[in-house]
Every structure is written in C-alpha cells, then in structure tokens.
Amino acid sequence: MYKVLIIDDEEPLREAINILGDWKNLGVSEVLEATDGNVGLAMLREHKIDLALVDMKMPELNGSQLLQIAEREFPDLLLIVISGYNDFEYTRQAIRSKVVDYLLKPVNRTDLNTALRKAVDMLEAKRQKQSEFINKNITLNMSLPKLKEKMYLSIIERSFKSQSNEAFLPLIGADASGNHYTSGVLRLLNLEQVRRERFHEDRDLMHFAVTNVINENSGGHFEAFSFASPKYEREFIAIFTMKGSYEGDAAFHSMHHLKKAASTLKELFGIACAGGIGATYSDYLELARSYETAKTALDDIDLLQLKGNVVVAGNGTSALQESKDNPSLTGRMPQIRNILESGNSAHAKSILNEFTQKWQASAHFSLGDADRTLREFLILLSDIAGEMDSIPPLLRSGKDKGLSGLGISGDFISFAQFEGVLNEVLDVYTGEISRSLAGNRGGVLENIKAYIDNHYFENIKISMFTDKYFLSREYLMKLFKGKYGCGIHEYVQKVRMDKAKDLLSDPALKIQDISEMLGYKDKNYFSKAFRNYYDCSPSEFRTQSSEVEK
C-alpha cells in the first residue's frame, strides 16, 4: 500500500483530486493534503510519502523550489506536477527533477489516473527489485544454524551448561583462548512502519534483512551474529566475537560495527534505530552480563533528546534512577474511569496531556520509562474496559494482543510520537467505552448526515465533527464509510450534485446562480465538478433534460 501527498494551496483542486483518484484500485492506503509548499515540505519530512502531487504555482515556497529540495532530501520520492500554466520554466524544472508526469489544470479523471498508474507501476517495480535482492540471499541466511542462536540465548538467560554443550562450543568460538565477547542490542523504533511499507507485512523477511545487515562484513578475526529478541519484538541481539586481540580493540570494533549497521539500516530501509553496547569480556559466559549492560544502556537513552540513530555504550550504571520521580498515571486512573463513564473523553485527554507535559519538562525521560508507561497504561485501560464490558473487538476475540489488537503500530522515535501513541490508545478505549455506553454511534452518524443534507452549501470540514464528537478523523471516516458506503467528502459531493440536477431543471436559474447556491464560488470549478460526476457539463445536462421532456 502506498501513501500519497497532495500539495496545493487551492482546496477545490485538492478535493477534486481526492474525488477523481482511483485510490483503492491503485493500492493507495492514505491520501494526505498540504495547503502550501512549506506545509508540504514539513509533511514530507514527517511522513514516509511514496508519491507527491505538486502544484507549481503556490505562495512563499513554489513548486519549482519544492522540486529542487525534494531532489536533495527525498531521492526516492516520485512526483507528479500540476500547473495551470503551460510554462517552459516549470516544464524544464519538472524534467530536471525527473517527475513522473506533468498535468495541466483543470485535471480530469482520465489524465490523473493515467499518471497515478504510471507512478504506482514504477513503485511496484522498485519494490519488486528490492524484494528479489533480499530473497536472493535468504538461502544463505537459512544456513545459519538455529542451534547457534539457541546457545547464545541460553548463555544470556544464564541457563547454559558448558559440560553438556561442550561439543558445540566451537560453533560460537568458545573452544579457543584469547577471544573477546561483546553483546549489543539494537531497537527498531519505527518497526511497524518499515514492516508495512518496505516488507509487505512480512515479519520473517524483515528479520532476515536486519540480521543480514548486522552480520555483514564479519568473519575472520571479527564475527557478528544477530537474531531477533524473543522477549522484545522491536529488538535484535548482536553477539560480537573478536579472536586473538586486546579487550579495548574488541570493544572498539563492536561499537563501530553496530553503529555502522544502524546507519546502513537507515540508508537501505529507512529504519530508525537506538542501540546499546555492553562491556567486553574474555569469558563467553559473561555475555549474560554484557547483554544486561547493553539493554540497560539502550533503555536509558533519553527520549527527550533522541535525534536520529544513536548507539551508546553501557557502563554498568543506570540513569533510570534520575527519572524515578516522574509522575505515574496509575494514581489518576480512578478519576479517568469516572470521566470516561460520564462520556467526557476530552477531559480524559486533558489529564493525559497534563502528565505528558510533566514528563516532557523532566530532566530525563528514557525509552525504558516510555515502555513501562505504555505497558501500565494499556493494562490499566484494559482493566477499566473489562469492568465496563468495553474490550475492543480484536482483543476480545483473542486474535491480537497489545497494541496490534488495538490497531496501533506503537512506533515512536521522539517524545511527541510517544505522546501520540498514548493518545491513540486512549482514543481507541474511549471510543469503545462510548459505543458501549451509547449503544452505538448510529445517532452521531445520522446527525452528521443530517447536517450535510441541510448545510451542503457551506464549507464543511471534517474537523467540525471530530471536535464536536471527540472522535479522531480516521475513526470517524471509517465509521461514516461503513454506514453509508462513502466518505464524508464524497457524500457532500453527492448531495451537491443531486441538488444540482434539481436546480438545473429550472430554466430560470442561471448556472452561475446555481453554482453559488451549491456553495461553489467559482462557476468553472462547479462545471468541472459536475462534468467529472456526470460526464457532461451543466449546460449539456440542461439541454438533454429539455429534449427528454419534449
């Protein structure tokens, strides 16, 4: 599935593209909108966008300037240019920036979807090539014995018995003297996003790709062996073995190797990483202590200061002590429960926001703090929902657990994104509790539909309803489409077009007047919207209707 961004300062054009695009058949999962070039650039930096449609004439940061920046910062981004002017300068920049296609306003359905199909075909070709490259090496990876992974895990868990496993010691280089061993831990901060966008939700394929990168360029006097942690889904354990060297050399090479692996993962797959390296020992059984030091170092990384990939060395002490005074949500959960029972989800969010502000203002809020807070929050909300018989459906069915059962990725590479995950969790539970208390959201959806039916001529924004009913945009859109078979924007367009047919039957009304009555300030845009909807212009429809009546 692909993510598309429309960058245009004209809302009618953005709305038209939203309506005309054959998104489902093109495999587009999300269409985002930016109101100008600066907003578009910020969204490109925040989201992983596959394709952007860019208007060339915009205030402040115009299309040409945006294309030049995109060339440098987003070399894999595909672009479609839209312009109301057949201008050579725009065309020259578009050619220089290797855009997929160049569309002239007004955009019609056929040209738009032809350009979109061309872009999607290019994306599919790139994805297929990358998948083939990874699959080509799977056979080699499978030759690595699971026994080696099992041995390292038993050492880390302190259950390894040297005598009973003596025959297998050469497998991990533990039969020779003079070797040094180091453990590292690498956490994938945006695991769900990468697995979805780069590996087609294939967990095993992603694991292979990550371990293949970590293990790359090892052998001889220095070996790296890695595997997915069975306890922490986002983490990979790396074991570094250096033969016949000094402890300092082994520690340096291990740190350098893990940092390089993190950098390569970012470059190849867009994976954001945080990692920890433990101490180096000459006794392979001390890998357990090395791992614990590495995990502590990883958990201690300050989320408030996290910027880009980072790998830190553990020193055996923990900075978590510094954040022990960070306030816990646990004591406020009874109050939150009472608020949710009263249906005031906005108040519940304000309490959560109060805590996130305190954490953000603290001296240190680590990845470990974030993980513990998120786990506690999930357990506490689940308990409340269970008592109120409002467990979300997937959790109730037992098909999925934790965040995946709530439909939340759980990715966060900054404190702001962590805060967003907490709010998503609260949104899901408050939504389920609200449905349980109210029976269903049918009344809300009927109110929204009735409002559109009576105010179709106004500038209707989804935020009007999300703010009023305390629902997220995505959730509200999903509910509305599930009940009425189309999105809110599409329904507004349908009501306007149905009304347009009725008004056009009155020959006394001018098309300009009808346009204004329907909420279109521009007669030409109304005509274009009508043609796209009915495959004929308003004038042609009026003529055809008159002939039928005769």
Description:
- Helix content is 56%, strand content 12%.
- It has 550 residues and is α/β, with parallel strands linked by helices.
- The chain has 4 domains: 2-135, Response regulator (Rossmann fold, 3-Layer(aba) Sandwich); 149-158 and 170-311, Alpha-Beta Plaits (2-Layer Sandwich), CATH 3.30.70; 330-438; 444-549, Arc Repressor Mutant, subunit A (Orthogonal Bundle).
- Helix 10 packs across helix 11.
- The longest helix has 28 residues, at 109-136.
- The protein is globular.
- The two termini are 51 Å apart.
- The model is unreliable at 138-144 and 318-323 (pLDDT under 50).
- Residues 446-544 form the HTH araC/xylS-type domain.
- This is HTH-type transcriptional activator RhaR.
N/C terminus separation: 51 Å
CATH superfamily of the largest domain: Reverse transcriptase/Diguanylate cyclase domain
The fraction of residues in strands falls at: 5-15%
Strand order of the largest sheet: 2-1-3-4-5
The biggest beta sheet reads:
5 strands, parallel
Average residue-wise pLDDT: 85
Low-confidence stretches: 138-144, 318-323
Count up the helices: 25
CATH class of the largest domain: Alpha Beta
Rg, rounded, reads: 28 Å
Helix content: 55-70%
CATH architecture level-2 label of the largest domain: 2-Layer Sandwich
Number of domains as seen in the coordinates: 4
CATH topology of the largest domain: Alpha-Beta Plaits
Net shape: globular
Q: Tell me the structural class.
A: alpha/beta
Tally of DSSP β-strands: 10
